[in-house]
Amino acid sequence: MVFGQVVIGPPGSGKTTYCNGMSQFLNLIGRKVAVINLDPANDALPYECAVNIEDLIKLSDVMIEHSLGPNGGLVYCMDYLEKNIDWLQSKLEPLLKDHYLLFDFPGQVELFFLHANAKSVIMKLIKKLNLRLTAVHLVDAHLCSDPGKYVSALLLSLSTMLHLELPHVNVLSKIDLIENYGNLAFNLDFYTDVQDLTYLHHHLDQDPRSAKYRKLTKELCEVIEDYGLVNFTTLDIQDKESVGNLVKLIDKSNGYIFAGIDGNAVEFSKIAVGPVDWDYYRYPFSSVCFDIFLWIAVYQPAEWSF
């Protein structure tokens, strides 16, 4: 059984940065990680790419050859990938024995709640390669500062969850920058727990653009609450504790936490005694002891206690 993550989200939500930071973190705790770039528009990758869709098809070539814009070109690329799924399967098969997989998908949101091609690619891989994947849906945390944009993010998250039909974790990314956009109307817990959206109505009425659609917004909020599926966890990719908490949540969702715990303990012991290297931008890892504690917190057997 092979485990991994399907990283999705709107443009600018930090998917590529997430894959870069997450791959470094997982390598540190002893997992062998392979990042698969399935975004044909992403030509400046900060991470080492195990499989790159640009070896199969490039968005720039599609746009020129078929006179398409970037959105139509991305849909074409996903259709082409679906029809050539054997190519991707052959690239992934050598990685299945001992790798944890991170799939970096395009940011075009239509691919995940309107079109079926991206979902078909994922489902075919799951069936053919026996993968256990969790969809990690990133949403920029600054959307919480605008009630209208926040409701839109909730609708997008709900639609994506229903469309993909995968274990799903919604993430407010760039949480460290949220204060740059002003004070939130409510505590952060209100935005992560998504409990009672009626409190947003007053703030929506303050904006003339939103007040015009007050009834529609109320009905949409009721739909979100009736499903009761959407909530968020937060992420600062530069904070290893934040990344560790997210890894723990993802591992529970796809079952990784129940597989190979003894093997992971051996792998982790090899790096715990060595030098720690976290080269993600300006935040170095400061303590091996913290990493040991974090690993124990994630994979602590029931009989252990502190």
From TrEMBL:
Pfam families: ATP_bind_1 (PF03029)
Signal peptide region: none
InterPro entries: Gpn, Gpn2, P-loop_NTPase
Keyword Hydrolase: yes
GO molecular function list: GTP binding; hydrolase activity
Xref: CDD domains: GPN2
Keywords per UniProt: GTP-binding, Hydrolase, Nucleotide-binding
Record carries keyword Coiled coil: no
Entry coiled-coil feature ranges: none
Top-level taxon in the UniProt lineage: Eukaryota
Assembly notes: Binds to RNA polymerase II (RNAPII).
Family affiliation: Belongs to the GPN-loop GTPase family.
Function: Small GTPase required for proper localization of RNA polymerase II and III (RNAPII and RNAPIII). May act at an RNAP assembly step prior to nuclear import.
Protein name (Swiss-Prot/TrEMBL): GPN-loop GTPase 2
Species this chain originates from: Ilex paraguariensis (yerba mate)
Source taxonomy: Eukaryota, Viridiplantae, Streptophyta, Embryophyta, Tracheophyta
